[in-house]
Amino acid sequence: IPLFRSADAGFRTGARTLLKKMASNRFCPPTLLSFLLICVTLWSSGVSAKSAQRPNIVLILTDDLDIVIGGLSPLNKAKKLIGEEGISFTNAFVASPLCCPSRASILTGKYPHNHHVINNTLEGNCSSKAWQKSEEANAFPALLRAHAGYQTFFAGKYLNQYGHSEAGGVEHVPPGWSHWIGLEKNSKYYNYTLSVNGKAQKHGADYSKDYLTDVLANMSLDFLQYKSSFQPFFMMVSTPAPHSPWTAAPQYQNSFNATKAPRDPNFNVHGKDKHWLIRQAKTPMSNSSVQFLDDAFRKRWRTLLSVDDLVEKIVKTLEVRGELDNTYIFFTSDNGYHTGQFSLPMDKRQLYEFDIRVPLMVRGPNIKPNQTSQMLVANVDLGPTILDIAGYNVNKTQMDGTSFLPEGKMNSSSWRTDILVEYEGEGNNVSDPACPLLGPGVSECFPDCVCEDSYNNTYACVRTVAASANLQYCEFDDNQVFVEVYNMTADPYQLTNIADSIGQDFLEKMNHRLMMLQSCSGQSCRTPGVYDPRYKFDPRQMFTGRSWRFNRLRQTMK
């Protein structure tokens, strides 16, 4: 039984039935019948023409897909069908390198300090009742459906705590979605539950009918087949790959057997001039840790081969239906990833390029093929860009991002030169039994008791990309207000923190810009970097008035 019913197909069937009945009625004059037939034809043509004027939009969102350490390498079909047919952005970043805060930024077009999702827990506002009440109704899909007349389809991972019993369960369908297929909680490949328009649909471990990436592909194709042709559509497909548990489809389980995590200059080296959490990593890593991360790297790539198939199926279906030329397709990720950089085994959550930079490829009407742009964009720009494509005025919203299409904006002097990255660290209140010497306040301490997070791994950064500068400036909310600064042109692997050697004037300007961005909202977040020369440098002002949970544990920190 199809999940979707075509509204225009129903109209045409009804119209044909009515006309047949009228034709068989000897009291119906032929002129009246002809007149009605002309009216129906003109009405149908008018609606179709109106629909054709507004493009369709597809957003394919992957989970934990990096670009810095080769994440796009297995995705040959996606690169060919989207990247080579459109534009690839080389300076695309996330507002926070963690799933739920980043996804909230995509949906709302806001930085974390404005949407208030700080981590992947319900207490951290991930898909909480408070989120649903304050932000969900104003997310860009709701605006697309309510004000731009789009039919909307979602399939896949939404927010990490979606489906939680304290957040409405799977019965909750977020506003704005005319067709909803949401994964309960976090990424899985088998043995999961989907919310299909508010009704639970349980899946097992049979590849032929349960492998999630393929299920999402098939449901997406069903939507394309049965949707209305009288309205433009927005389709968001959110894959589990390449997130753990890294379960590949059977046909891909032996792929990339000789592949290893890249041995870039920052692989398995000590971050001696970085925040204490990076310095605690064991260098060199143990052989078992290296083997573990190499194996994980291969498994991640294997899961991506099914994503590549999904992309191909969607693009080819749009082409067969004659809709491809009028459809924008976005391909991106919610955050990056690392495997061994600065001797951190594997995770995200850090301020470095491998965790905050993501792939972003876009094809669509009037986008020329084989383009590359160095324009500075962030995931807070996705919602505004999609609304802009749909003809909705972004200035009517409270979104912090801005539209990066049409292409003419790329060379505009009014385009921003910097974006904000925010992260609030997480730690455990008690010691990890497997690592008792670490004490409380840390988390994600695996393997070899190397911790990837802590309460005072709380930071904010300005990432600057301009003609005169390619820089990153970060401050931590800890006892030191630790600062990290990188010249990305001279030091792309971020090996040397130049905070202690750079001029005071620069530190003052970047600190001021960081404070401006952390207090921005809406329009004030979109302006290019502007510095106030009257500002006096005081790094501790950045976190004034903010009470972080780790404060009570500072005495346990290094």
UniProtKB/TrEMBL annotation:
It is an enzyme of class 3 (hydrolase). Its main location: other. It catalyses: Hydrolysis of the 6-sulfate groups of the N-acetyl-D-glucosamine 6-sulfate units of heparan sulfate and keratan sulfate. Its EC number is 3.1.6.14. Its cofactor is Ca(2+). Belongs to the sulfatase family. This is N-acetylglucosamine-6-sulfatase. It comes from Echeneis naucrates (Live sharksucker). The lineage of its organism: Eukaryota, Metazoa, Chordata, Craniata, Vertebrata.
